[in-house]
Amino acid sequence: MIVVTGAAGFIASCLVTRLNAANFNDIVVVDNFNEERKLANLKGKHLREYVDRETFFEWLDANHEQVEFIFHLGARTDTTEQNRDILNVLNFEYSKKMWQACCQYQLPLVYASSAATYGSGTLGYSDEDALLPLLRPLNPYGDSKNDFDNWAVNQTEKPFFWAGLKFFNVYGPNEYHKGRMASVILHAFRQIQETGSMTLFRSHNPEYADGEQKRDFVYVKDVVEVCYFLMHNRQHSGIYNLGTGEARTFLDLTLNTFAALDRTADIHFRDTPEDIRDTYQYFTQAEMQKLRSIGYDRPFTRLEDGINDYVRNYLVTGNYY
Q: According to its UniProt record, which residues of this chain constitute the active site (predicted)?
């Protein structure tokens, strides 16, 4: 059995699809299944069992001998969340329990970290361990992820294989439920369909023109390929960036969304909301040498190709992956 936590969410549900495609069908999905808006992400998938996140560790105690691998992708992912107690419980303490259970039962573990740990990026985007204690995230969500990364690398007892993945800006199918936290592509698609135009955040940093803010946008299908690779290549534990290694602008993102819809671009700007303005990242770009060094050699999807696939084959049709 393969365990996937956060399984009804965006990235994890896409991972379940990738596993099914490789004939892994004994998948135990773990989540808070009371959130009905996410359940459509799991329809039609081959699953063995649904386990509520609150009772998962009791389930694992009883079933660990049948578990082969754990993907711990569940978390509180709202980057605007200010309640540190919630983030501590869901992102830090729960992950600690997962780590300790994997040590106890000798289970391999891949868990979700985040590029939010890099904060403003003034220290760069290296995924080497030496940088971890120096990072200063810009919000409590980033703190919760960085706190766990630091805790993990400093443990004397570790799973026999483990990997923490620092997801950069992931986009793609199955994010319909994410609301404000969905990718700009989904917001652009909806705005263009409704109004024929798209409004982006204005730059409040004199070093960047409006729309020229840059992020490392990575297609979710690439993210799950890396997860699949790590399931089969367990020689090198550690923390790894998961982006493309190439920063692109929000204008690039939006113009390609218009192009995928065969629409003429009409882009406007508005002030960045004050609740995120001071913690807004103007540039992210993953250093990918570390992942490449352990043998991951697949090319990452070009932004143009990823947006075209996402818009035409999922957003326009309403399909799930």
A: 141, 178
Tokens of 52: 């509520």
**Domain segments of the chain: what residues?**
2-169+217-245+287-298
Which listed residue (178, 208, 290, 320) is catalytic?
A: 178
Topology given in CATH for the domain delimited by 2-169+217-245+287-298: Rossmann fold (3.40.50)
178 is catalytic: yes
46 in a known ligand binding site: no
What does the alpha-carbon distance between residue 319 and residue 321 come to, in Å, rounded to a whole number?
7
User: What are 58-90's pLDDT values in tens digits?
Assistant: 999 999 999 999 999 998 777 766 778 788 788
Q: Model-level pTM?
A: 0.95
Asked if residue 205 belongs to a known ligand binding site, the reply is no
